[in-house]
Amino acid sequence: MQFVIVSGLSGAGKSTTASFLEDLGFYVVDNMPADLIPQFAQLCLATKGRYERVALVTDVRGSLTFEGLFKALDSLDQMRLKFTILFVEADTGAIIKRYKETRRKHPLTRDGSDLTSAVERERQLLEPIRNRANAILNTTSLPTAKLRGEIINLVAGDMKDRAMSVSVVSFGFKFGVPLEADLVFDVRFLPNPYYIADLRFKTGLEAEVRDFVFSYQQTKDFMAKVEDLLAFSLPLYVDEGKTNLVVAVGCTGGKHRSVSVARELANYISQKGYVTTVSHRDIARR
User: pTM score, two decimals?
Assistant: First the structure.
């Protein structure tokens, strides 16, 4: 079981980190009392695989000391349960700016302390857990997408490729380029089955059209170059923190060439380990 504990400064990005972990398939529990962590871990282990990835968020909302948390971590060690502590922090100025923008109250200002003092006090209180962390994420100037990429690198492991889904869509340029497209490939230079009487009223979903399109060397050369580009760029999109990539393939009407090529590209991307879907936007248009 993969067990992750998220802690850190209020306003630094713990909730965002937790949401990214949830996107990666983690079962996330926010603000669980430290005393309950060992029992919760035992419950997860007892489910025999139902909770394979678990993340807990703990911070000063639960206690002004972390003695209970350290006892819980010792219990996890005794259970031989491996866990990872992610500590999320940011510069004081950045945290103050975020609180002013959201107009939320810092948990340590309830006693009348000003915001700057509250942030510095919390930083001191959290120093013991920071020293024990496996990884420290400073979000001061870290874009949200980059933060997601950092989290993927830290905890995704063999799930890394599955952290981003890829949607391949075929379309016809005469009906416009899909607005959601990230990458657009124009295959109108390929021989057009529309001008073959036996193929005109068929689509790229049918073997005859697919075989016609891929019988030409330029199609094979094009596919090799596009596949090489995708092999290079897809991992970089994952590292950048992208959750969904839309690859659009267009021909004139969206029925023949783009459909055939989109299916082949989707199959290639799927074989690379990415969650892949394929759709044909204009295949039914007249």
Answer: 0.64
> Is 260 known as a binding-site position?
no
**15 assigned to a ligand binding site:** yes
Which pLDDT band, with edges at 50, 70 and 90, does 273 fall under? confident
68 annotated ligand binder: no
For residue 39 the two structure tokens come to 């029992």
Whether residue 242 is annotated as binding a ligand: the answer is: no
- Is 9 marked as a binding-site residue? yes
Long-range contacts of 121-129 (CB under 8 A, 24+ apart): 122/9, 122/10, 122/60, 123/9, 123/89, 123/92, 125/60, 125/64, 125/65, 125/66, 126/7, 126/8, 126/9, 126/59, 126/60, 126/66, 126/87, 128/66, 128/70, 129/7, 129/66, 129/69, 129/85, 129/87
Lowest-confidence segment of 61-70, 73-82, 235-244 by average pLDDT: 61-70
User: Residue 112, annotated ligand binder?
Assistant: no
168 annotated to a ligand binding site:
no
